[in-house]
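tool_call: predict_structure(chain=1)
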Amino acid sequence: MRNITDNLELLYSASEIRKRIKTLGALISKKYDKKDPIFIGVLNGSFIFMADLLRSISIECEMDFIKVRSYSGQKSSGTIQLLKDISADVKDRDIILVEDIIDTGLTIKFLRNRLFGSSPKSIAIATLLFKPSVAEIDFDIDYIGFEIPQEYVVGYGLDYEQKLRHLDGLYCIK
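tool_result:
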């Protein structure tokens, strides 16, 4: 039986990821200077990206997490389950919603609509990965690390059946 790591192909190295996140951090810092936004990370996948993104910014901020489930194996289930809600009050706050990957757009639409129901001042979206060829969204993604093709990607927080999140690069499963 072959190990799944035998079927991985490097998409972005750790140094390429660090460089891109540094650029995103500078853009966010410039836009939100003196605004004290709240970063809301989508668990579990965004935790590494969000940690590095927060270390790359030069502004004051807060953070919180929300947890949803929409995948089983490599397939989207087509439904969203809210597993953990945010604890912060976001009324009249600038929110930066942090995702690991935007694929079909189902999860980000659900989260965006849910957070708008709490009357924030604004919601921006930062994602490490974006699949524009399959995303069905009618709003802009403000901060995109990398646009990728329709491939299943693991590493840097993204998983396959809760494994491979620890990899420091991003890999396609072949």
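agent: The two ends are 16 Å apart (CA to CA). Proceeding to next step.
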